[in-house]
Amino acid sequence: MLRAAIGLGIPFTAVVLLLPYINTFDFTFLNIPFLYLWMFSWLILTSVCLCSCWWFFDRHRPEEH
């Protein structure tokens, strides 16, 4: 269950549920709106979440053929 929370729950919450709240910020960095920075960063952070799930939970499982 923890695997699903890390691999799917955190990215889903950050991208889908927090998006209306993040859209209220008027902050820009190098003329890039914060919303675009948020979405691009979660593109990378989702991969980090999935990699951490593999590293902590599935790395030591024997391969099934």
Mind sketching the topology for me?
Elements: H1 2-17, H2 19-22, E1 28-29, E2 32-33, H3 34-58
Antiparallel strand pairs: 1-2
Helix pairs in contact: 1-3
Descriptive account of the structure:
Helices cover 69% and strands 6% of the residues. It has 3 helices and 2 strands. It has helices at 2-17, 19-22, 34-58, and strands at residues 28-29, 32-33. A hairpin with a 2-residue loop joins strand 1 (28-29) and strand 2 (32-33).
Using brief descriptors, characterize the structure shown:
single chain; 65 residues; mainly alpha; two-stranded antiparallel sheet; 3 helices; 2 strands; elongated
Major beta sheet summary: 2 strands, antiparallel
Q: How do the strands of the widest beta sheet line up side by side?
A: 1-2
Shape: elongated
Radius of gyration: 15 Å
Task: Work out the helicity level.
Answer: 55-70%
What is the distance, rounded to the nearest whole angstrom, between the alpha carbons of the first and last residues? 24 Å
Order of helices and strands: HHEEH
Number of strands: 2
Mean residue pLDDT:
88
- Alpha-beta classification: mainly alpha
Low-confidence stretches: none
Number of helices: 3
Strand content: 5-15%
